[in-house]
Specification:
Number of helices: 10
Largest sheet: 2 strands, antiparallel
Number of strands: 4
Radius of gyration: 26 Å
Structural class: mainly alpha
Shape: elongated
Strand content: under 5%
Distance between the termini: 40 Å
C-alpha cells in the first residue's frame, strides 16, 4: 500500500496488500493450472507420436523380430496411460479451479470490505465480524466440494484476513475510496480482460489455422487413395491425429468462447467505470461495487462461456 501526498491522502492498493491466505491460494492455483495444462499437452503429443511409426516407410530392427520404431510407439501409448493414471490421482484441474475460485472469492471480499462495498457498506456496525463470517461461509462451501483449506498448515498467517492496508483504505473518505477502487481494481481488471481477449483472439487464429493446415494434406491423400491414383499413404492417419490433437487443445483452451466472454466483461466494466466517475453517488456506491465484483467473478465468465458457445 502506498500513500500519495495530497489533501485527502490518496492511496494505491495492490495485490500485495491482500491477506496471506489469498497469496497462498493464488500460488497453488497457478501451479495446479500449469500442471493440468502440461499434462494435457503431453498426452496429446504422445498420442500423435504414437501414430508416426506406422506411417513411416522404413523399419529399424534392433534384435530378432524387434522393431525400434514400433517400440517407440509402444512407449508413447504407455506414456499416455501413465500420465492419465497420475492425472486421475492428482486431480490437478479440479484443484486448480477450486483454488482459483477461493483466491478470487477472497480478493473480491477484501475489496468490498476495504471500499465499503455491499454487504460491508458504511451502515454496518461491525464490518470486521461480518467480513469474517461471510468469508468463512464461502470457504466452507468450497471445502464441501474438495478445496483443501491451507490455514492450518500455513506457518505465517500474514496477520489475519484483514490487513493493515485494508483497514486504512476503509477509513478513508468516500472520494479516496472511489478513486482507489476505480484505478486499482476496476481499470486493472479492464486491462486484464483486454489482454486476455487479445490472447484468445491470437490463439483462436493460430490453432484454427493449424487445424486447417493439417487437415488439408490428409484430405488430399485421402482423395488420391479414393480414386486409386496412388498406393496407401500411412501419413494420412498421422495428419488426421495431429489435427484432432490441435482441435482438442483448442477446445481445452476455449479460445473462441473466452474471446466473446472477455469482450462482454470488458464492455460491462467500461460502462460501470463511466457511471462511477460521473453520476454515481455515495448512496449508490455499495451496490455498484457489489455489481462490479460480480462482473469480474470467474463464475460470471464461466456463465458467459457456457451461454455463448
Amino acid at each position: 500500500m502506498t500513500a500519495i501526498p495530497g489533501p485527502l491522502q490518496s492511496m494505491v492498493f495492490r495485490s500485495a496488500d491482500l491477506p496471506e491466505l489469498f497469496h497462498h491460494t493464488d500460488a497453488v492455483a497457478v501451479a495446479r493450472q500449469r500442471e493440468a495444462v502440461n499434462t494435457t499437452r503431453g498426452q496429446l503429443a504422445l498420442l500423435v507420436l504414437g501414430t508416426l511409426p506406422a506411417a513411416l516407410p522404413w523399419h529399424v530392427e534392433v534384435g530378432p523380430g524387434i522393431q525400434l520404431l514400433d517400440g517407440a510407439a509402444v512407449l508413447a501409448y504407455l506414456g499416455v496411460l501413465i500420465t492419465t493414471f497420475l492425472a486421475s490421482r492428482r486431480k490437478a484441474k479440479s484443484h486448480w479451479q477450486l483454488n482459483r475460485s477461493a483466491a478470487e472469492f477472497i480478493k473480491s471480499n477484501c475489496w468490498r470490505y476495504a471500499v465499503h462495498g455491499s454487504p460491508f457498506d458504511s451502515s454496518v456496525h461491525h464490518p470486521e465480524a461480518l467480513f469474517a463470517s461471510r468469508l468463512e461461509e464461502g470457504l466452507q462451501e468450497l471445502r464441501k466440494v474438495g478445496w483443501d483449506d491451507p490455514r492450518e498448515a500455513m506457518q505465517d498467517s500474514g496477520g489475519g484476513l484483514i490487513t493493515t492496508s485494508m483497514r486504512e483504505l476503509r477509513d478513508k473518505a468516500f472520494t479516496v475510496r472511489k478513486e482507489t477502487y476505480i484505478r486499482d481494481r476496476l481499470i486493472e481488471q479492464r486491462r486484464w480482460y483486454r489482454r486476455r481477449r487479445l490472447v484468445s483472439r491470437r490463439g483462436a487464429l493460430v490453432w484454427s489455422g493449424t487445424i486447417v493446415v493439417l487437415t488439408l494434406p490428409a484430405l488430399v491423400l485421402a482423395l488420391f487413395q479414393t480414386f486409386g491414383s496412388a498406393g496407401s499413404f500411412g501419413l494420412t492417419g498421422t495428419f488426421s491425429a495431429a489435427a484432432a490433437a490441435f482441435l482438442a487443445w483448442n477446445e481445452t483452451r476455449r479460445h473462441h468462447p473466452l474471446l466473446t466472454a472477455h469482450s462482454l466483461v470488458e464492455d460491462d466494466l467500461e460502462s460501470m467505470q463511466a457511471a462511477m466517475e460521473t453520476t454515481l453517488t455515495e448512496r449508490q456506491w455499495a451496490v455498484a461495487v457489489f455489481e462490479t465484483e460480480r462482473i469480474v467473478s470467474p463464475e460470471h465468465t464461466d456463465w458467459l462461456v457456457r451461454h455463448r458457445m
